[in-house]
Design a protein that fits this description.
Layout: E1 2-6, E2 9-12, E3 17-24, E4 33-38, E5 45-51, E6 56-59, E7 67-72, E8 77-82, E9 91-97, E10 113-114, E11 118-123
Parallel strand pairs: 2-11
Antiparallel strand pairs: 1-3, 3-8, 4-5, 4-9, 5-6, 7-8, 9-10, 9-11
């Protein structure tokens, strides 16, 4: 299983970024996949999860209404659309698949296979 994130960068507060996670070695349509983030000196924090197996999604309260998650099974790609970014969103963002979790109800952020992450920096 391999996951590769991209799309991070430097953006001003209020701006947007679109993160992508391309995976291989597993079937995107079978398992839940999610994003979590880790800011310097802070614990990892779950951001969002999506599963096309049971059409479940989960969005953290801290980003609800600003972030959305989607998936393109044909391209084995998960997308995290981030709008209205705030300086406190600054972190390394990781995507992860928690095999064998098929639903976001049983998905544990940061468990299983994850990518190397992509850095998001939001300036004030």
């Amino acid at each position: 299983v391999q996951l590769v994130e991209s799309g991070g960068g430097l953006v001003q507060a209020g701006g947007s970024l679109r993160l992508s996670c391309v995976g291989s070695g597993f079937n995107y349509s079978e398992y839940a996949i999610g994003w979590f983030r880790q800011a310097p000196g802070k614990a990892a924090e779950g951001v969002a999860c999506i599963s096309t197996h049971d059409d479940s999604t989960k969005i953290a309260n801290a980003v609800k209404g600003r972030f959305s998650i989607s998936i393109d099974n044909a391209k084995n790609t998960a997308i995290l659309q981030m709008d209205s970014l705030k300086p406190e969103d600054t972190a390394v963002y990781y995507c992860a698949v928690d095999i064998p979790a098929m639903s976001c109800t049983e998905y544990h952020y940061g468990m299983g296979y994850r990518g190397k992450g992509t850095l998001v920096t939001v300036s004030s």
